[in-house]
Specification:
Order of helices and strands: EHEEEHEE
Shape: globular
Organism: Parapedobacter indicus
Largest sheet: 3 strands, antiparallel
Helix content: 10-25%
Strand order of the largest sheet: 1-5-6
Number of helices: 2
Number of domains: 1
Strand content: 25-35%
Protein name: 1,4-alpha-glucan branching enzyme
Number of strands: 6
Structural class: alpha+beta
Distance between the termini: 26 Å
Radius of gyration: 13 Å
């Protein structure tokens, strides 16, 4: 059985992403001015849509993450025990 966890802890999010080859990114074409646009954790090694994402520094990622009051919902493992890359951003409660 796979279970989800939720956090806003920067170090937990960064470690989870980096252990899976993920990088902080934004969706191209969604930023304006100082707004980074739509955030994503991008997995370049597993992506056929690499050109849709622009890598950004973790500091910029977390500035936007905190300003939008987001939490990170994620899984460590799939139901079969395989490492999971499932995640999404949700509003903090």
């Amino acid at each position: 059985m796979s279970t989800s966890k939720q956090t806003s802890d920067h170090e937990t999010i960064r470690k989870w992403a980096e252990q899976r080859g993920g990088v902080p990114a934004k969706v191209r074409g969604t930023s304006s001015g100082d707004d980074e646009g739509v955030l994503r954790i991008h997995f370049p090694e597993n992506s056929e849509n690499d050109d849709q994402f622009e890598k950004i520094p973790w500091t910029d990622f977390f500035d936007k993450f905190d300003a939008e009051k987001l939490d990170f919902l994620y899984q460590e493992q799939k139901a079969d025990g395989e490492t999971s890359t499932f995640h999404k951003f949700v509003n903090r409660e």
